[in-house]
Amino acid sequence: MDKCALIKYLYIASALLFLSALVISGLSCGESAPEPSPAPSVPTPAIPEEPSSGTPPPPLSAGWTPDGLIGGGEYLSEMAYANGDYELFWGSDQQYIYIGMRAKTSGWVAVAVQPGNRMKDADMVFGYVEDGEVTVLDLYSTGDFGPHPPDIEQGGTDDIIEYGGTEADGYTTIEFKRALATGDQYDHDVSSGKNQIIWAFGARDNLNLKHSQRGYGEIVLPPG
Ligand code: HEM
């Protein structure tokens, strides 16, 4: 090996030694060198939604009072039948339905949840005002054209929680409140969406007197 080649060889060898020393020192000193802070591996927790439970929506029948007077805003929905001789008003919250009925009569007025035909299995509420005294009955019709005895006479329960009524100027108005689902076998649940009803009114305050007018309709409740 000539002198020049020897110098080259020594130069390369020392360069390799220097590089290896650098690598080794890098490995051993790595622990003390501050690591860049790692990107968070856990996703940032989602912002919690507005509390939905425990904050019930406002009632749909604000300021309901069973005083036999149907005030503006007391009911969200209404429907007129028999050219306005029978009017039905309703609203609900998560637990109850509030109903007002007004008919051109000094006799009885009634409404019934009836998912079938005619009067059979109709879950009726029947009311009248006699000498200033209000009667509201929770009935259930057992046949196509009655009879419709009170639920309590059939082994059920009276589920009219509050009621009131008036008779004035040839009109009878009855208001009442009941649970959307009473649990009584002689009541039908009232649910979101369409509920088929029948309505009727009679000329006198008599539970057995046939209607002077009657018909079909529906109560529509918003999604719960
Ligand atoms: C108060 C005693 C009642 C009697 C004696 C009675 C009797 C009758 C009779 C005989 C019919 C067949 C003749 C007709 O269509 O007019 C009938 C039909 C009907 N009733 Fe009554 N009803 C009474 C109460 C009610 C009540 C409280 C309601 C509703 C809440 C009602 C709703 C209806 C309806 C919707 C029909 C028509 C059925 C059809 O033909 O599709 N009824 N009722």
Helix % is 10-25%
What's the story with the biggest beta sheet? Answer: 5 strands, antiparallel
What is the number of helices? Answer: 1
Q: Which molecules other than protein and nucleic acid are bound?
A: protoporphyrin IX containing FE
What top-tier CATH class of the domain at 77-221 fits best?
Mainly Beta
CATH homologous superfamily of the domain at 77-221, by name? Cellobiose dehydrogenase, cytochrome domain
| Dominant shape | globular
Q: Rounded to an integer, what's the Rg over CA atoms?
A: 39 Å
Strand fraction equals 25-35%
In CATH, the topology of the domain at 77-221 is named Immunoglobulin-like
Outline:
The chain is mainly beta. It has 1 helix and 10 strands, in the order αββββββββββ.
Secondary structure blueprint with pairings:
Layout: H1 3-29, E1 77-81, E2 86-92, E3 96-103, E4 109-113, E5 123-130, E6 133-140, E7 162-168, E8 171-179, E9 193-201, E10 213-221
Antiparallel strand pairs: 1-2, 2-3, 3-8, 4-5, 4-9, 5-6, 7-8, 9-10
Features:
224 residues; five-stranded antiparallel beta sheet; Immunoglobulin-like; mainly beta; binds protoporphyrin IX containing FE
Describe what this molecule looks like in 3D.
The chain is mostly beta strands. It has a domain at 77-221: Immunoglobulin-like. It is built from 1 helix and 10 strands. The strands form 2 sheets. The protein has a 5-stranded antiparallel beta sheet, with no helix packed on it. The chain has a 5-stranded antiparallel beta sheet with strand order 6-5-4-9-10, with no helix packed on it. It is globular, with a radius of gyration of 39 Å. The protein binds protoporphyrin IX containing FE (HEM). Protoporphyrin IX containing FE is lined by residues 110-112, 118-119, 124, 126, 145-146, 198-200, 202, 208-211, 214-216.
